[in-house]
């Protein structure tokens, strides 16, 4: 599936619903993106751009057991497989943009507050925020480093993991998989 630039632009500011297990199911691992890209908004699939390495890294890490065709939009079976395993996906900011740097600092801070409320409500074992710069902006923690953060959010352990965007060129599927696997092990999603 492909989109023209004009088709993608028509999805600007569109929101993408969180992918979360049903309320009666446990939420073990919550991945947090910065905000939806235009391709994500068009397909209603988190991390959907064909150049994004999120799903290949999850597969390599053993978090997924079969590949996801993110560019065409995640199937209901793929979504259900994540939910059954207690894995969710959300974003700091809800509106779709072409690039994350189009978001204001206020949007990231507001998104951080909403994320903390979601975590307080759903109590995942682990929260994995993708992107150190976004994490620092959203939570005002200029000293934050990649990996597990010193302070949990209530009962939830917090990790900052690398952003899987193709624009984050110094990361590879292998390095992303290592970081995601660390968070998944802490959440009990993989051994």
Structure description:
It is a single chain. The protein is of the alpha/beta class and 191 residues long. 36% of the residues lie in helices and 12% in strands. The chain has helices at 5-9, 38-43, 54-61, 76-84, 105-122, 132-139, 173-187, and strands at residues 29-33, 87-91, 126-130, 147-148, 157-161. A five-stranded mixed β-sheet has the order 2-1-3-5-4, sandwiched between helices. α3 crosses α7 (173-187) and α5 packs across α6.
- The DSSP helix count reads 7
Task: List the secondary-structure elements in sequence, H or E.
Answer: HEHHHEHEHEEH
Proportion of residues in β-strands: 5-15%
CATH architectural category: 3-Layer(aba) Sandwich
User: What is the gyration radius calculated from CA atoms?
Assistant: 15 Å
Largest sheet: 5 strands, mixed
Principal-axis shape: globular
**How many domains, as an integer?**
1
Keywords: DNA damage, DNA repair, Hydrolase
Pfam family, one: UDG
InterPro entries: MUG/TDG (IPR015637), Uracil-DNA_glycosylase-like (IPR005122), Uracil-DNA_glycosylase-like_sf (IPR036895)
Organism: Nocardioides hwasunensis
